[in-house]
Amino acid sequence: MFNPERIASFPEKPGVYIMKDKRGKIIYVGKAVSLKSRVRSYFQSPKNLPLKVASMVQAIDDIEYIVTDSEVEALILECNLIKFHRPKYNILLRDDKQYPYIKITLNEKFPRLLVVRRVKKDGARYFGPYADAGAMRDAIDVIRKIFPLRSCKKDLSQVPLKERPCLNFHINRCPGPCQANIDENDYNEIIKNVIMFLEGKQQTLINTLRQKMEKAAENLDFEWAASLRDQILALEKVLEKQKVVSLDMADKDVIAMARSFDVVCVQVFFVREGKLVEREPFILKNTKDAENKEILSSFIKQFYDSASFIPKEIIVEEEFEDIEAIGEWLTRKKGSKVTITVPSRGEKKQLAKMVAENARAYLEQRESAEYREHMKNQKALEELKTYLGLDEIPYRIEAFDISNTQGAESVASMVVFEEGSPKKQDYRKFRIKTVEGPNDFESMKEAVTRRFKRALEGDEKFRTLPDLLLIDGGKGQLKYVREALRELNLEHIPTISLAKEFEHIFVEDKDDPIILPRDSEALYLIQRIRDEAHRFAVTFHRNLRTKRNLRSVLDDIPGIGKTRRTALLRALGSVEGIKMASVDELAKIPGMNRKVAEEVYNYFHN
Hints:
This protein has helices spanning 35-40, 51-59, 71-85, 133-146, 167-170, 184-198, 202-218, 222-240, 292-306, 323-334, 346-388, 440-456, 475-487, 521-555, 562-572, 575-580, 583-587, 594-605; strands at 15-20, 26-32, 62-67, 92-93, 101-104, 113-116, 125-127, 243-244, 252-259, 264-272, 275-285, 313-316, 339-341, 396-405, 408-418, 421-422, 428-431, 468-472, 495-499, 504-506. By secondary structure, the protein is α+β, with helices and mostly antiparallel strands.
């Protein structure tokens, strides 16, 4: 337990305080103008503290601090620490690794458009994060229809390539840079247009393209003028769908929130050139008992820490903590003045109100869908208890499946569902070690034995036991799994197997299968769990098989061992990249020489 008397030695300077529990795990990170005053405020009568804060204070075993030169530097450090440690008691935007970004690879010749989960300082241009992956895919579809871009991974440092162009070239979805059908400057003009589109500057883009179209027509380049005309028409259709929300043409983000008992939805409207080009809803966790101003502050810091674009103005519905420090931080980050506005009347107030109404509607819709899903899963679990004759509702279900190719690279998957929903952090993969050849029975027994043996040995990752074990297969797989459980004295764990052909359920000591009604929620649930176990196993097996085939291809080349193989793949990315490289390029890779480079080149080209 932390001794509050230690606070007397804390400095009255700006900085970050880091609270830890008795295991040394960081449970909260905060910033302060005065470390001593801010930390002392936590250690008062629990009656004066919100329940969440009182609970956190009880868990504090140690507090460390880092002094900074200013409040803004403390804010930046706080953002970095929260993002890295994701402490239990901080208000958290859903893990931003799950949010996709659109990446334009400006760091390579003839850039491509990719979807990625992480932003890197690699010279590329990123747009996002996108909370709505469907909206992001729609944007990509529009871009690919309007602007021809390459999507291949080919090394285009030296063109033309010897191979023929791909299908995308023939259907006018790629301008064919691999065959030198477009020079780099013209291709980069297309990339500039794509970036302008993603920035929401569609009207400016249309005006620019119209000028180019008129100039092309004057120069009697009617084919190019027609191509620009088609792009303009497509963009105008996009523009028609965008709602005018502001007479002010400045770029701005409008942020408002809605909250229920323990969930908060923060809605962001992205206004570009006076039009609403996109809107994104974000869900925050750990918000119970938190004040609105704390929630807004936490969201804005986390969102703009990883956002690809910061507008000149951010409109918020109400005041929030650290508003001046955050404004200064965003100004530094953007490199020009960023204004945070809390409007009291007028157009901006109406705009903030509209965003808040959208946040409430989204939250109601989400909670309604979650409630329906919860009730459906509850019904399925109750049906399973009845049909299988279980003593308790199977709250936690674990499912196993085997995947191999004629016994090679045999693997097992374990997926976990709790309350009828997947719990992916508990999924596990096993490479089968003791079984030779395609023997699914013994492979299943090995995987189950290893899983439960780890639990009996006290492994935290396997500690929680299932209420029901689901095996993909028939009576044979069930027999071997039950043998494994008996050997570990865990035969009390209910176990069923699901045979694929007729979806019959087999249990031990019963010859006849249990046949669930075709329209029962219980059958839908176990089919879903079985299919997820199969998908997880097949994906793992496919990845191992790909790596094995990759190794076997390169290992056939004289002079290529493990070190050179790793160097080649690190430098060129794939076998296809190695195949496309010239002798000079291969020879420059660390660990290679010209003789071996020629061996590699000749292997793929002769």
